Amino acid sequence: MASFWQTLTNRLKPGSSSPQPVRAGYVVDMHSHLLPDVDDGIRTIDEAMTCLRQFAEWGIEHVVTTPHVSQDMFPSSSDLLRTVADDVRTQLLAEQLPITFDLAAEYMVDELFVKRLHQNDLLSFGTERYVLIETGWASLPMQLNTWIFQMQVQGYKPVLAHPERYAYFRGKTEALADLRQQGCLLQLNLMSLTGRYGSDARRMAQQLIQDRLVDFVSSDLHHPRDLPTLEKAIQTTDYQSLCQLPLQKPTFR
Fold first, then answer.
1. Which reaction does it catalyse (predicted)?
2. Ordered per-residue pLDDT tens for the chain, 253 residues
3. In this structure, which of 7, 29, 108, 118 has its CB flanked by the most CB atoms within 10 Å?
4. 3 state SS for the chain
5. Fold topology of 24-242
């Protein structure tokens, strides 16, 4: 019997037949790790194309990939990331997939982030200049509010990645509401709705939806093997509730 991976790869090859696809219900995925071999995401262009073909089947029209950028683990330069993104775009054009592919980044708020903020060297997306940020898992950075303000002063719109996954926000949705009041938007990972990151993250995601504290929804896809979990997520009742929220709609030139 063919493995799931073999079945999925064969089904997504150009020209292959496939059943009527599930529709995602959102057209911009603004958080993923689809640049080959730059972080803990996909390793090859073939893997990237497997993911992008599936996105196209789901009706996603615009993908903003957001590789990790951090001082200790992934200190990639903006120029390097742009070069790798161009390689993916070349393959997209060759296959004529109906997807626009843009580059931003998921910045750890560390010393490298502060340096690039001061240099006005943050990879953003949309004409609104949204910038995706994440924090460490152990504790909330004491200077986060200061950095959010500095980002806004320089014309960026901060977006906090997957707040449902940070243990120090669990049961403290008022703290996230305060961040939004300060202008930091919130992005929820779709796979949190399936328990992919644990039951606590799932409950927190449900609470954020109930409290209407979600501005963006995205895959945070790292590997083709997570595509079945992502498909499961977009068929949940929680996702149906999520789609009723007034989510942000970035604009692109």
1. O-phospho-L-tyrosyl-[protein] + H2O = L-tyrosyl-[protein] + phosphate
2. 343 334 444 444 555 454 565 888 889 999 999 999 999 999 999 999 999 999 999 999 999 999 999 999 999 999 999 999 999 999 999 999 999 999 999 999 999 999 999 999 999 999 999 999 999 988 888 899 999 999 999 999 999 999 999 999 998 999 999 999 999 999 999 999 999 999 999 999 999 999 999 999 999 999 999 999 999 999 999 999 999 999 999 999 8
3. 29
4. CCCHHHHHHHHCCCCCCCCCCCCCCCCEECCECCCCCCCCCCCCHHHHHHHHHHHHHHCCCEEEECCEECCCCCCCCHHHHHHHHHHHHHHHHHHCCCCEEEECCEEECCHHHHHHHHCCCCCCECCCCEEEEECCCCCCCCCHHHHHHHHHHCCCEEEEECHHHCHHHCCCHHHHHHHHHCCCEEEEEHHHHHCCCCHHHHHHHHHHHHCCCCCEEECCECCHHHHHHHHHHCCCHHHHHHCCCCCCCCCCC
5. TIM Barrel (3.20.20)
251: its two tokens = 């604009």
